[in-house]
Amino acid sequence: MTFLIDGYNLMHAVGLVRPGLPAGKLERARTRFLDWLADAANGREVVRVVFDAQGAPAASPETDHSGVWVRFAFRKTADDEIEELLASEPQPARVTVVSNDSRVREAGRRRGAAVMRCEEFVDWTIEEAREQGANAPRSPAPEKPAPDASADEMAAWLAAFSSPRAKRRKR
């Protein structure tokens, strides 16, 4: 079986990316993500990951990352690239598309591929590891969790809890 994965979509689903992540941290998160996928596939499955790369300065060839094939969608979205890969796939029934994006999942269904939501794929990796008697690959941990509070809310909390309250005078 071949998994065709919407890269940043799955990374977002497992908590590895958030809007505004600096390029250096994004690259480290992407490497950890690809390492996790390589461990999960363990050479039993073909894994192809497509990342958005609309702003890339030049096209790059598909590369191998520890058995995971990585492609950057030059001057288009990963969705567009996945649709093109599906259109040219000679045996789409042997492909499973992994994405939470309804457009990508629908493209897979139209071509006769299986589809999985990101959460289903993570569950599948855990179940496969159990069946193989291996340690289940854990979802990769994010660099640092994003705070749920805005900057103004954080400042208000810090002001409220950083200084002791003034004592009241007795009358």
Protein described:
By secondary structure, the chain is of the alpha/beta class. It has one domain: Rossmann fold (3-Layer(aba) Sandwich). The chain contains 6 helices and 6 strands. Strands 3-4-2-1-5-6 form a 6-stranded mixed β-sheet. Helix 3 packs parallel to helix 4 (102-111). The termini are far apart. The mean pLDDT is 83.
What layout of secondary structure does this protein have?
Blueprint: E1 2-6, H1 7-13, H2 23-41, E2 46-53, E3 63-65, E4 68-74, H3 78-88, E5 95-98, H4 102-111, E6 114-116, H5 118-131, H6 151-162
Parallel strand pairs: 1-2, 1-5, 2-4, 5-6
Antiparallel strand pairs: 3-4
Offer a concise description of the structure:
With 171 residues, this protein is of the alpha/beta class. 43% of the residues lie in helices and 18% in strands.
Question: Which properties best describe this structure?
Answer:
6 helices; 6 strands; 43% helix; 18% strand; Rossmann fold; 171 residues; alpha/beta
Number of strands: 6
Alpha-beta content class: alpha/beta
- Low-confidence stretches at least 5 residues in length (pLDDT < 50)? none
Indicate the CATH class: Alpha Beta
Write down the secondary-structure element order.
EHHEEEHEHEHH
State the helix count.
6
